[in-house]
Write a structure and sequence with these properties.
27% strand; 231 residues; 7 helices; globular
Length: 231
Amino acid sequence: MNPLLIEAIELIKNRIKTFPDVKAQCFEPKASEIYKKINNEELFIFNEFYEAKGFRKIHLEVAKLGSSFQILHCVFFPDPCYELPIFGVDLVFSSNNISAAIVDLSPVGENIPHFMSSQLESLHVPKFKESRVLPDWGYIFSPYVCFIRPVDTYEEKSFLSIIDQYLSILLSLVLDVRKDDINSLKTISRFEYQKRYCSNQKRNEKTRVILSKFFGSSWTDEYIEKILFSC
């Protein structure tokens, strides 16, 4: 594993431990460790699942394809009864360099709440040299999404710092948030926005192509629907 990938995993897992009422979530054992080999090319997938106050599922996935392609994928899916954003981060390593890095606190409503936007605006985010272009379904992300290709060690470390800062904001929101009734209009609206988020993430064809190559389209559809972006 790339040392920076290991550092990112440890950072996120340490943050997860600080969330209130966090506990491991039970999933089928076969979903935790997945392996497939085709024509001397190996794919490893490791999944961890948690739940905590305000979050119906926290998913941490690490994938390794061959000797040079590694991926970290993590999403905090909020319980719609709570006014909390969706935290998501992806790191893609190719030949030991990060080819893509994205992190966001995505809204589950028409606008980002003021108390959250004010915290995001106060963060010190360096100007990265190579910004990446969001896909056409990228409107599900917030205006504060950071999507880049780090060009050196300084930018790589800076991106890890942004991940930590976004998780720190998320934790501060969790500590103060109140639970709305499950049948309230606010809860229903947040649920619909979360469904939209999941539906658009499923349009990521790069993920589907890689998984289908190893496991076939039927298995891939089930994995995306039930593991990656269940709603």
